[in-house]
Amino acid sequence: MQILIKGWVKPMTDAVQYLKMNGLGNDFVVLDARQKPLKLSHDQVRWIADREQGIGCDQLIVLEYSPLDGVDVFMRIYNAEGGEVDACGNATRCVGYLVAEELGKKAVTIHTNAGLLNAELNGDVVSVDMGTPRLEWDQIPLAEEFEDTTGIELQIGPIDAPVLHTPSVVNVGNPHAIFWVKDLDAHDLERFGPMLEHHPMFPERANISLAQVLDRDHIKIRVWERGAGLTQACGTAACAVAVAAVRKDLTDREVTISLPGGDLQLEWRASDHHIIMTGPYELDGEGTLPAELFEESAA
Ligand SMILES: N[C@@H](CCC[C@H](N)C(=O)O)C(=O)O
Q1: I need a surface site. Which of 90, 175, 189, 248 has the fewest CB within 10 A?
Q2: Is 234 annotated in the active site?
Q3: Residue 74: which residues within 8 A CB-CB, separation 6 or more?
Q4: Structure ipTM over 0.95, yes or no
Q5: Active site: which residues (predicted)?
Q6: How far is CA 235 from each of CA 71, 90, 97, 193, 278, rounded to the nearest angstrom?
Q7: Across all residues in the chain, what is the average pLDDT?
Q8: pLDDT tens digits for 74-103?
Q9: pLDDT single digits (tens) 161-202
């Protein structure tokens, strides 16, 4: 593997090296499989993501070559629980930085399972065009038909009722349900997050956000991520919340989304309905995965 970031040039060896990165505390192990393909099992991903036995991360990111002309990289995303997913906003900013630095470009195109995303490096921040949201019930997807996805009826039983109700649902490459609350800290997201993530209304499960509107240009959120649990930040959740807030006329199109790990700037552009997410990236360190992880019995 060879990582050609300035100051991070590595010789080609058989050892699998990684970078550790984060976007507002949502952390990633990044592997470069462009020189040597890497196929990872659920168990290997889970081991790498495990904070006690492994390296520890919310998502594992694998860089590959994209088969498409003019595209700079393919980004494969795994949740800590081992499953592959299609979108990750914070990782897109981190990978945008890595690849822009590597290629000496300001703007790069990242191929993901959710589509092609353009990322632009501007000093300490990266802006990503996250594309257009999918808002129809079967695009979220939901188990039942709803005409209006700005607020759906959801039977949630006794877990925190009647305070939590009628979430907005949005798909930005992955499914999100947003519960609007008056006080973010009055809810035990760690307790009911897993139940809502697995609610039968969400056949592909869902990322669950609590959102408190502070002003027409400011929302505070906390997120229970599908397949990863509570995180310091979730970029796609911020995108979904920004879209849902505009649809409910709670905010304007440009909004600051505050997460436990820090702030993201979001714009749901009026001209083409694309979502533009801007925020920081951080390179935390590097390491080598243990060879035993790739021995036959461990795979
Ligand atoms: N942390 C990410 C989202 C990662 C995927 C998500 N947990 C899912 O299962 O859809 C982000 O920054 O968007």
Answers
A1: 248
A2: yes
A3: 63, 64, 65, 66, 67, 110, 111, 112
A4: yes
A5: 88 (proton donor), 234 (proton acceptor)
A6: 22, 5, 15, 18, 9
A7: 93
A8: 999 999 999 999 999 999 999 999 999 999
A9: 457 889 999 999 999 999 999 999 999 999 999 999 999 999
Beta bridge partners of 119: 108, 128
Residue that has been written with the tokens 């499960």 in this structure: 205
Amino acid at position 238, single letter: A
Write the residue with the smallest CA distance to atom 1 of ligand 1.
Answer: 234
CB 86, CB 207: distance < 8 Å: no
Q: State the distance from the centre of ligand 1 to the C-alpha of 104, rounded, in angstroms.
A: 28
User: Please, are residues 33 and 64 in contact by the beta-carbon 8 Å criterion?
Assistant: yes
150 is annotated as contributing to ligand binding: no
What structural domains does the chain harbor? Answer: 17-131+282-289 (3.10.310.10), 168-273 (3.10.310.10)
Ligand-binding annotation for 285, yes or no, is: no
Rounded-to-integer distance, Cα 178 and Cα 168, Å: 5
- CA distances from residue 215 to 104, 261, 262 in whole angstroms, order as listed: 39, 20, 17
Q: What letter represents residue 77's amino acid? A: I
